[in-house]
Write a structure and sequence with these properties.
The protein has 130 residues and is α/β, with parallel strands linked by helices. It is built from three helices and five strands, in the order αβββαβαβ. Helix 2 (74-87) packs parallel to helix 3 (103-115).
Length: 130
Amino acid sequence: MVTLSEINITPLLDLAFVLLIIFVITTPLLEQSLNLQLPRGGQPEKKIDPKNVRTVEVGQTGVYVLDKQRMRSLDDLTARLAAAFRANPNLIVYIRADQDGRYKFVADLIDRCQKNGITRYSLRTDPSPR
């Protein structure tokens, strides 16, 4: 009779891989859009077809999020918006920017939109009274 003095680590590796797969799948689902403090003001909006709207959020540090998906760069965001505009010429870009963020990030986004022919955009505010 032969006695094995080694520990079989195959079940441990299987468990590790299963956990890794679970984390890879659930992490993007846990990401939410940016926590922004919108400036106050504005008026209630008119009804707009939601399929014509793309929402871009601009964080304080220049992080861009398109429809709750974080963009790697402003170039990547611009390419996606341009493709969406080619597919739908009625595109409206909602720009949600943090009130304490740098204006440069918003200005760069608007400039890129205009260079790609996107002239319909809305700077979003918090319409609730102070």
